[in-house]
């Protein structure tokens, strides 16, 4: 028999065998329902069931937040609606690009969310959409700042921002005293800082102008992370025009105050404005970029007016391209939806009342500390934060911060201009937004001031008895009765105030 005929016979035999015994094939195939169930078994487990280790740690963090006094100026508590959006199905969708120009299909509803977020962002700050645009995709304000630099600068171009020990942010360019570059802004671009007056703590605008005219930065940056006073945006505009710089404001800390019209607005004078979305704005963690568009503005005294029709801003395409694809991939759609929710709240009378209380609480805390002979940088505050210079008490910010942490009070150490802040910061930064969100009023911040003073007394005593070296200081805090008593009082105080959306 030929080989071809043998193969045809074997094939025919196989087919007839299968048709006569269909149950034999079915028994070989695994059960489809059991396979499907095995694949999907993990999908609907609760957090506690799926990962009890993470669940337990998260519960501990919830208790820490509830039992503690949160005074870090860059922290806040979001509402239930924001948390619901952050933990939603929107995290499942990938959406590289801008609305109407996505790389993937299936983004029609994501586009609606992002466009609504744009509208609410402009409305929250009373901006004309003909004159201002916005990008809501940056993952943080540091990312937003770097996207602006990447859009408008070439490597080694010059930027100029407030010195970090003076209250600026490292994303505006910073070198340590040894010359080390500690941020991408300093690694890829050249930066020269302006500083505060060492005697007053206020920005020295005369020296700022002198340095800017010598240095000629392409971007002049106003805004910082630890500056307790108003920013003179009009003066910055004058200086930027004189040295030919784009004027950019990083309003990360004061964005909530700007929206509520409880401080001067950078939008009247600046070309570009960036911000985080989670500090005084009380939204999810992320960044946002506002940019001028349409006809360019020209100088008329210290204000701006429209220039010739043919002279147009070119920020929009450059910044959008810098955010994606230059700097990031797909946006976090759950964050953008959560931000849209927060921005809707920002435009309400209730939010304005909240920011007014934030400022009243900051004033009350500053007054309480000043009455007790504490030294505050600039002698007080115009906004939501204050800087406490601890050096006259013989304390460092690091050790005082540690005592507060063990007492369930969170503050953060910060350099005071003139100290050796990179080694041992001489003060702490204290903010009122988070505890105001929990419902604290002026009288409550009088109590908080007492807690802080007692923590300072404990730190001074341990310094005196055990020395200032960190290891000796930490050892001296162990089994400290005063520390344990203060912690108990702090917890009793803090647990009177609920945290939004947390079931404790």
Report on the structure:
The structure is a single chain. The protein is of the alpha/beta class. It has 2 domains: 264 residues, Aspartate Aminotransferase, domain 2 (3-Layer(aba) Sandwich); 142 residues, Alpha-Beta Complex (Aspartate Aminotransferase, domain 1), CATH 3.90.1150. It contains 20 helices and 17 strands. Helix 6 packs antiparallel against helix 14, helix 8 crosses helix 13 and helix 15 crosses helix 18. It is globular and about 65 Å long. Its cofactor is pyridoxal 5'-phosphate.
Topology (elements, then pairings):
Blueprint: H1 3-20, H2 22-28, H3 32-40, H4 47-50, H5 52-67, E1 69-70, H6 80-86, E2 97-98, E3 101-102, H7 108-124, E4 132-135, H8 141-152, E5 158-160, H9 184-188, E6 190-191, H10 205-215, E7 219-222, H11 233-243, E8 246-250, H12 255-259, E9 272-276, E10 287-292, E11 297-300, E12 303-306, H13 315-327, H14 333-346, H15 349-371, E13 375-376, E14 385-389, H16 397-406, E15 409-410, E16 412-414, E17 427-431, H17 433-437, H18 442-466, H19 470-477, H20 481-494
Parallel strand pairs: 1-15, 5-6, 5-7, 7-8, 8-9
Antiparallel strand pairs: 2-3, 4-10, 9-10, 11-12, 13-14, 14-17, 16-17
Helix pairs in contact: 6-14, 7-14, 8-13, 10-11, 15-18, 16-18, 18-19, 18-20
**For the CA atoms, what is the radius of gyration?**
29 Å
Q: How helix-rich are the residues, as a percent range?
A: 40-55%
Mean pLDDT rating: 91
CATH-assigned fold name of the largest domain: Aspartate Aminotransferase, domain 2
The CATH architecture of the largest domain is 3-Layer(aba) Sandwich
**Basic shape:** globular
Whole-number count of domains: 2
Strand content: 5-15%
Q: Give the class-level CATH name of the largest domain.
A: Alpha Beta
Task: Name the CATH homologous superfamily of the largest domain.
Answer: Type I PLP-dependent aspartate aminotransferase-like (Major domain)
Strand order of the largest sheet: 4-10-9-8-7-5-6
Low-confidence spans: 13-20
EC number: 2.1.2.1
Domain Serine hydroxymethyltransferase-like: 48-451
Pathway: One-carbon metabolism; tetrahydrofolate interconversion
InterPro entries: PyrdxlP-dep_Trfase, PyrdxlP-dep_Trfase_major, PyrdxlP-dep_Trfase_small, Ser_HO-MeTrfase, Ser_HO-MeTrfase-like, Ser_HO-MeTrfase_PLP_BS, SHMT-like_dom
